[in-house]
Amino acid sequence: MADLFWPGSERAHDIFTNEAFLAAMVNVEQAWLEASDPGTEVCLVDLVTGDDLASLAADAEADGNPVSGLVALLRRRSGVKGVHRGLTSQDVVDTALVLCLRRALDRITFDVERQARALVRLAAHHRTSVMPARTLTQWAVPTTFGLKAATWLQGLSAATGRLNQCRPLPAQIGGAAGTLAAPAELAGGTEAALSRATDAAQRLGLAVAPPWHTERSILTEHADALVAFADLWGRIGGDVALLSRPEIGELREGAGGSSSTMPGKANPVLSVLLRRHGLTAPGHAATLHVAAAASVDERPDGAWHTEWDALRSLARHSVVAASQAADLLEGLVVNTDRMAERVVVAASTLTAEQRSMGGAGDDASNYLGAADQLITAALERAALVWRDLA
Which residue has the higher pLDDT, 122 or 387? Predict the structure, then answer.
């Protein structure tokens, strides 16, 4: 889904597009139909295509969501009046959202592992690449680029751990008010209704959970995990952009972007776009939290509807940023000569703290503290998170 307002959007391909969401809703209806009638030979999946999007979107305003129009279309084209019976619109929308989110998380996880491999390589290779540390924009004490990369790796390990701690994504099946009353009526009892809900969830490869129609923590906890990645990627982008300034020149993107008017420029475009994501992702998560707080009654009036685009934007943008961060780190050019030159120029400042404590203060490489051990600790933690890292 190309988007001129979000350069790089094509990296997300068909993840969480309108077509993908429509297909997910149809898959939910298919799973429920099969759970309700295990012997059915009706296939709904091919009855609706992208060509139906415009009319379904237009019709969605009448009921405030696209499910009613979709159900009418599926019943008409399949000839099966039992399509959707026992479900409610929120069951279909929420479960479809979760299916789309799952695909996004799978792609993000793949690119996060690419980032981890690149950071392990950078941290290990540059253990002794001395450079000036900077605090409040000014030279501070010596550090190594290996430790800077290891610090990024620590953040990646933490964000990955947070995502891994999220509960498995569940189907949402509760009927009109989360009581499963209609499924129980149709199935002949509550146990049969619960069994159908379990069957449908399993057919979709989703976890089984009680209805969460107004308990929205499943969405907010995954959103918060995505924001943890956004925070890290934004910081990496900021560090790389700063250190790639011509007057510093310690880092460079492997393939910088060009300028429309200045042919000599090589802009750190990936870094800029990662900072963009870091600045905007928290807002989408905040919207989901606000919606969760406003989820009144058994289906909220507006809060539920607010979630859809916020979750879609956060998920798609996270997929894009994960891919961009992986490309940035895999192609990052580290100018150790420039780092060493800066250490020489800034030597008196970098070793001032050491001299103030009675040290010799004449060689920045002798004032690195426990940098090497800290790198080792970050690498060991990463090995626990990604056990197959080379």
Answer: 122
CB 70 within 8 Å of CB 56: yes
Q: What is the CATH number of domain 104-170+212-390?
A: 1.20.200.10
Q: For the chain, which residues make up each domain, given as ranges?
A: 104-170+212-390
Catalytic residues: 259, 299
Is the dihedral angle over the CA atoms 126, 127, 129, 133 positive or is it negative?
positive
User: Please, are residues 182 and 175 in contact by the beta-carbon 8 Å criterion?
Assistant: yes
Q: What's the pTM value of the predicted model, to 2 decimals?
A: 0.95
Question: Which has the closest alpha carbon to 118: 384, 331, 387?
Answer: 331
First to last CA, the chain: 34
Q: pLDDT (tens digit, 9 = 90+) per residue, 218-246?
A: 999 999 999 999 999 999 999 999 999 99
Burial class of 353 by CB neighbour count within 10 A (0 to 12, 13 to 18, 19+): middle
pLDDT of residue 262: 46
